[in-house]
């Protein structure tokens, strides 16, 4: 964990130095400052998870939605991407009002959550065995 923390500090120093002395961070161009920043940020998140695991070894049960999305991450991600395209194609998202933006986000997240749960239910081993006619061991 110490070596990970040292690497994280080095990437933060590199990101700040590159941003100040070379070129500002730019996600669009994915320049060196952006890459160092992303490495530093993601290492910091990883360190936080490791620290939480060490401080709280008895983890609480995982909520059903989180477990379902974790098991069916790729199809849920693909549905979310398609839905993002549909929303962006259906409205001018930059110029909508606050109420419309909130309503579209609530609808979007609701659909993604329901799809994640539905995919997990349909693709679960018990469901597949029930539809194929085989019995569980």
Describe this structure as you would to a colleague.
- The protein is mainly alpha-helical and about 140 residues long.
- Helices cover about 75% and strands about 0% of the residues.
- The chain starts with a helix and ends in a 5-residue tail after the last helix.
Secondary structure topology:
Blueprint (H helix, E strand, L loop, with lengths): L1 H20 L10 H24 L8 H8 L1 H18 L7 H26 L1 H8 L5
Helix pairs in contact: 1-2, 3-5, 4-5
What attributes characterize this protein structure?
about 140 residues
Q: How would you describe the shape?
A: flat
Uncertain segments: none
Number of helices in the DSSP assignment: 6
N-to-C SSE string, H for helix and E for strand: HHHHHH
In terms of structural class, how would the helical and strand content be classed? mainly alpha
How many beta-strand runs? 0
Cα radius of gyration in angstroms: 21 Å
Strand content is under 5%
- How far the N terminus sits from the C terminus, by CA atoms, comes to 42 Å
Biggest beta sheet summary? none
Mean of all residue-level pLDDT scores: 87
Helix content: over 70%
In short:
The protein has 137 residues and is an all-alpha fold.
């Amino acid at each position: 964990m110490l070596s990970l923390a040292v690497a994280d500090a080095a990437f933060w120093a590199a990101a700040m130095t590159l941003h100040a002395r070379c070129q500002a961070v730019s996600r669009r161009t994915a320049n060196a400052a952006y890459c160092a920043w992303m490495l530093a940020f993601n290492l910091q998140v990883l360190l936080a998870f490791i620290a939480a695991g060490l401080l709280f070894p008895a983890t609480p049960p995982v909520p059903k939605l989180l477990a379902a999305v974790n098991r069916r991450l790729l199809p849920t991600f693909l549905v979310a991407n398609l839905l993002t395209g549909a929303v962006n194609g259906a409205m001018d998202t930059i110029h909508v009002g606050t109420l419309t933006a909130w309503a579209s986000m609530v609808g979007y997240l609701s659909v993604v959550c329901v799809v994640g749960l539905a995919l997990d239910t349909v693709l679960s081993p018990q469901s597949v065995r029930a539809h194929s006619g085989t019995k569980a061991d």
